[in-house]
Structure formats: C-alpha cells, structure tokens
User: What shape does this take?
Amino acid sequence: MRNVTGTLVLAGTPIGDLADAPPRLAQELAEADVVAAEDTRRLRRLTQALGVRTGGRVVSYFEGNEAARTPELADALVAGERVLLITDAGMPSVSDPGYRLVAAAVERDVRVTAVPGPSAVLTALALSGLPVDRFCFEGFLPRKAGERLARLREVAEERRTLVYFEAPHRLADSLAAMAEAFGTERRAAVCRELTKTYEEVRRGPLDELVTWAEQGVRGEITVVVAGAEESRDAVDAEELVRRVAVREEAGEHRKEAIAAVAKEAGLPKREVFDAVVAAKRRDG
Assistant: This one.
C-alpha cells in the first residue's frame, strides 16, 4: 500500500527558442512545492518568458551539489510535496542532473512523471538526413584522446545511427577520432545551435567535417553519425597488406599508404595497420 503522496515531475525545457516550452510547463512551475533547477538564473529568464511565477521554493540542483541535495529532495517527496526538476535545456537526467533523484524516488515508491519537451537528440536525428529507425545515444565522449578513441572503437561496427554531444572546442579532435575509428568516409552531421538564431546543420563524410571544424565552431553541438554498413564488399587482410605494399613500392611512406588503403576500403586505419603488422610478424 502506498503511503506517500509526493510526485517528482521531470520537465523538459527549450533547447534554444523559449517559445518551444511545452504548455504544461507554466502550470507545473506555478503549482510545484519545490522547483529544483540546474541554474536558477536561467529559471528566472524562463519564468519571465512564460509570464509565470514559481509557487514554491526554488533550490539549485546541479552537478556540483546533486549528490548532497538528493536526500533533501527525496525527503520532500516522501513528505508529500510535488517536486519539479528542470535543467538548462532538454530533459533532466539525459546528460544532465536528475538520475540520482529519479533513482531515489523510485526506491521510496514515489510517483515519477514527466512534462515532455524539446530534445536535442531527437531534433538532431530528424535533421541529420541519416537513418533514424534505429539509433543509440552515446552522450559525451571522454576528454582524453586515448580513452576517446577506445570508446569509439567499441562501437565501430555498430549498425545503428550514433548520437553524441560535444563541446565546440573539442569538436575537431572528436571528429578526427571518429574518422580514425569509423573510417573517413563514414557519413555524419554536425548540428549546432538547434532552434536558435544561428542554427546550422553541416552534413558530409567525416574527413570533410574535420576540415570544417578545424576552422573553429561555436555553440552547443550534437553530432549524428551513420552506423556501420550492413553489407559491404569485404576486403581480406591479405589484400589490404598487398595494397599497402604496392603503394610503398611506388614510394609512399607506410603511414600514408595505410591511410589511403583504409579510405579506399572504407575501413578504420587501425584495421589496415593491424593487418600489416600481423603480416610482418608472420613473415618474420
């Protein structure tokens, strides 16, 4: 038997244009006993745009205090209060604070519901021009180069469309790592400033997107990458080694020869490199 009456409401907020706020959001802001906001200054701008006042107390709830504040909010829920959780943009807990509080509410048998709202993931998918029937969201890539490349190699053969968030100052490096892990010809789309004044979607193979991003990109970024081809003409390891050898004999350095063969075959450079190394060990 339930012995609590509180409700946790996860509210989607606009990812750019404040006019995209769901109609129910204003009502929830006015009626909530507690509004937990990632940034209280942004909350103030949002309420002014919606022409509404928060009816309950407002507390900050962001990455730095999420662990410490979750028990306090969970207690409020158990006490019967309606807690509204909003983040700076999009849905709480999707690469934003919220997961801890949802888990705590579920553990205490508190009702959890949502006010659906804009989503950078779904918006970017829809605009990308890439297959959207099956996809997986990978969030942010690791900041360190080695960890980032290792994470990408884990999904190099994933056939579903991949979606990533990325910071603008790391975009060129991340796209270059994707080109190395997935192959330079893999199709992708970089979506920036979605629903904002300077919205832009840049589509093309990864090597072209790397060149574009190296010139400098600003704004909030979502990257959509096509999945691996379900069927392609397989090139066995011996043929890859032969092609590299032909290019070396023609005067190319091995590194350039491997990169060229990988691009021709639509394979990650690492796969061609590994084939060459294995052949060298085998042949002594």
Remarks:
- The two ends are 73 Å apart (CA to CA).
- The CA atoms of residues 170 and 236 lie 34 Å apart.
